[in-house]
Amino acid sequence: MSPRPTWHEPLSRRTNGLAEEGTHSMKWLAATSAAVVTLILLSVFFGTTEPSATLLAAQAAPPDAVAADPARYSVLYENDVAQMIRVKYQAGARSVMHSHPAGCAIFYKDAALKVTSSTGEVRTRHYRAGDVSCGDGNSHITENVGPDTEFVQVHLKNRKTFDHLQTGRSLVYPARLKAPDPIDADPAHYFVQFENDVVRLARIKVPGGVKTPMHAHLAYCIVEIRDMETGVKAGDSSCGNAMAHESPNNAKSVNEAITIEFKNRDSFKP
User: Fold this and answer.
1) Which of 121, 165, 168, 227 is deepest in the core (most CB within 10 A)?
2) Where along the chain do the CATH 2.60.120.10 domains lie?
3) Between the CA of residue 129 and those of 36, 149, 184, 233, what are the distances in Å?
4) What span, in angstroms and rounded, lies between the C-alpha atoms of 138 and 102?
């Protein structure tokens, strides 16, 4: 499978039943409308001359995905800069309006998702297992118009823009690790897909029977993309501290995974 990086607006949630969904949406709209009216009245009373600023301040963001729908969005791992979140959507599921910070999505199952932005723009996006996408923070509603699906999202805490900048430079590793960056040590099997000043997402794709040379990783998380006869399952994930290792693929099938490395970090947790 060849990598197919895309740019993605992160995803969403659904409540139990359309009636409950409508109630939550109306409550959020009512609260926002009330805030708008209150701030407009205050601006009139105090003589504020910037109504556009007043309106923008009143448009409070809806709740984040984890708070809005813990049944579908569950935190797998977390540190001071990021959350790794498992997302599960049944066929036909539709969320209420909610928000995400800047982040990425790692798909290990096919997905077809209809996304309605906070401005009313509607787009249907199709993903294949192995797709990776990163984007800025946003608010939206998502409807799963395909089969049951799952994926992992990376939320970058308190960050509005992803600011993708693929430098092509090696990372700086702790002095205790006497091994090169995997991008330098084994460019045939490791390559960067997205990067900013905080994280680097790289794809690992190692054929069966191949052993990668000794290389290092900074503090990291990893998401497996394929089922393997060794017992590895698509969607398996873990996080850990900086380390150096060789990585033999003792299976007959290709081992494919996405690593999220945290720049300038020895420990996953501070």
Assistant:
1) 227
2) 6-156, 182-262
3) 42, 10, 26, 13
4) 8
DSSP state string for 179-232: S--HHHH-TTTEEEEEE-SSEEEEEEEE-TT-EEEEEEE-SEEEEE-S--TTS-
pLDDT of residue 59: 59
Instruction: Supply the pLDDT for residue 168.
Output: 83
Instruction: Enter the pTM of the model.
Output: 0.79
In this structure, are residues 106 and 152 in contact, taking their beta carbons and an 8 Å threshold? yes
Contact assessment for residue 95 and residue 20, using Cβ atoms and an 8 Å cutoff:
no
**Low-confidence spans in the chain with pLDDT less than 50:** 1-58
Residue 12 is predicted with a pLDDT of 35
CATH architecture of structural domain 182-262: Sandwich (2.60)
Fold entry, domain 6-156: Jelly Rolls (2.60.120)
* Residue 160 pLDDT: 97
